[in-house]
Design brief:
C8orf32 fold, 2 domains, 337 residues, alpha+beta, 6 helices, five-stranded antiparallel sheet, single chain
C-alpha cells in the first residue's frame, strides 16, 4: 500500500501553541468554522509555562528511579496497516467498512476548501479534508456508539455546507484499536524509516515497559526542539507532522515529538495516544503521548504505571523543561488522537 499524504487540522478559536493547529468545535446546521488565531506557544524555554513544579534547563532532581519491569514484550511479526477504499475519482466518499478497527477514511475533490466532521453524541471533531481527492485516515477516538460523518464544502468566509454524510454504528474490537494504527497524526507504513528504527530499538528488550523506555529515551535524546519552526508555524494552521522527517532531521516541535514516539510505539504493539491540551498556569497549548502497558518504569521525568494510561511528555524530557513531566497536575487534557 502506498503511503498516503495526511493533512488535517481541527478548527475552532483557540490559542495556537507549539504550532499544533487542531482544535474542535460543534457545528450544527449550516456550519461555521472560525479560523485559528496565533497565540502563546512553547519556545523551548521553561519560563513560557510558569509551571507549579520544579522547572529548569538542567532537568532538576532525578527523583525516584524504578527500573522498567512487567509483562513480557515481543516484537510483532508484521506491522498492522490501515486499508484504504478504492479511489472515488473525486466523488465525495466516506468509507465505514473498517470502523470496528478504529478508523474511517474520507475523500473528495472540490475547487473550494473542504472539512470532514466526525460526531458522536455531544462530541464533535472537525478536520481539514484535502480538496484534491486524496484519501485521509481519521481515528475513531470517542469509543463505541453511532457516529455521524459529514464532508463539508466552504461557501464563503467560514461558512460550510454539507456535500455528503453517512452514519455507522461503531463497536470497537477492543478499546485500544484506534491507538494501535497509523492515522493522519502519526503516519507510517511497514516501510517507514521510523518503524525500522523502532524495531532496532526494541530488538533486545524483554518487557513492555522497557520498549516504552527505549523509544521515549531515544526520541528525547535524538530530537532537538526547533524554535525557528515553532515561530514559523505559529502564524499559520494546518501543520501535520511527518515521523520519518522528524527522525531524519533530528528536529521538531511538540507535535513532532509526540507523532514520532506514537508511530514507533504503535507499530511495536504498544497502545499509544497522541494528546493535545494545555500546560501550566499560562495555558500553553501542547502535545504529548499516553501509553498503556502492563509494567512499570519511573525516572525523574517519566512515570509509567501498570495497566493504566500513563503520560509521557517526550518534549519536556528532551528540553529539560521540568524535573517531573509525568506529574499530571499541570496538564489539562483536551483532545485525543
Amino acid at each position: 500500500m502506498s503511503k498516503p499524504r495526511h493533512r488535517a487540522a481541527i478548527t475552532a478559536k483557540l490559542a495556537l501553541s507549539f504550532a499544533c493547529a487542531f482544535v474542535i468545535a460543534a457545528i450544527p446546521g449550516f456550519n461555521v468554522f472560525p479560523d485559528l488565531q496565533p497565540g502563546t506557544y512553547y519556545t523551548g524555554k521553561a519560563e513560557a509555562f510558569g509551571l507549579p513544579f520544579g522547572l529548569g534547563g538542567d532537568g532538576g532532581d532525578e527523583g525516584e528511579v524504578v527500573e522498567a519491569t512487567g509483562a513480557s514484550f515481543a516484537q510483532p511479526k508484521s506491522i498492522v496497516e490501515v486499508k484504504l477504499a478504492p479511489d472515488a475519482k473525486g466523488v465525495p466518499d466516506i468509507c465505514v467498512d473498517y470502523v470496528d478497527e478504529g478508523y474511517v477514511t474520507a475523500q473528495a475533490a472540490s475547487p473550494a476548501r473542504l472539512k470532514f466532521q466526525i460526531k458522536l453524541d455531544e462530541q464533535t471533531y472537525n478536520y481539514d479534508l484535502p480538496s484534491d481527492g486524496e484519501q485521509v485516515v481519521y481515528p475513531l477516538n470517542m469509543g463505541n456508539g453511532t457516529y455521524t460523518f459529514r464532508i463539508m464544502q466552504n461557501t464563503s468566509g467560514s461558512n460550510y455546507v454539507e456535500l455528503f454524510s453517512t452514519e455507522a454504528k461503531v463497536s470497537l474490537k477492543n478499546e485500544f484499536a484506534p491507538f494501535l494504527l497509523p492515522n493522519l497524526y502519526c503516519n507510517y507504513t511497514a516501510k517507514s524509516d521510523c518503524i525500522e528504527k523502532a524495531r532496532e530499538l526494541t530488538s533486545g528488550v524483554s518487557t513492555q515497559a522497557e520498549a516504552v523506555e527505549a523509544v521515549c529515551t531515544f526520541v528525547a535524546d535524538h530530537v532537538s526542539y526547533d524554535n525557528d519552526k515553532a515561530e514559523e508555524l505559529a502564524q499559520r494552521s494546518g501543520y501535520v507532522p511527518d515521523p520519518d522527517e522528524t527522525l531524519a532531521t533530528g528536529k521538531g516541535i511538540c507535535f513532532d515529538y509526540a507523532s514520532l514516539s506514537a508511530a514507533m510505539l504503535r507499530s511495536m504493539g504498544i497502545p499509544t495516544k497522541v494528546m493535545t491540551g494545555y500546560v501550566g498556569k499560562n495555558d500553553v497549548y501542547h502535545a504529548w503521548i499516553m501509553v498503556y502497558v502492563d509494567g512499570t518504569w519511573k525516572t525523574g521525568v517519566f512515570d509509567v504505571k501498570p495497566k493504566a494510561w500513563s503520560r509521557c511528555d517526550v518534549t519536556f524530557a528532551s528540553t529539560g523543561a521540568t524535573q517531573y513531566v509525568g506529574d499530571a497536575s499541570a496538564y489539562t487534557d483536551r483532545f485525543t488522537y
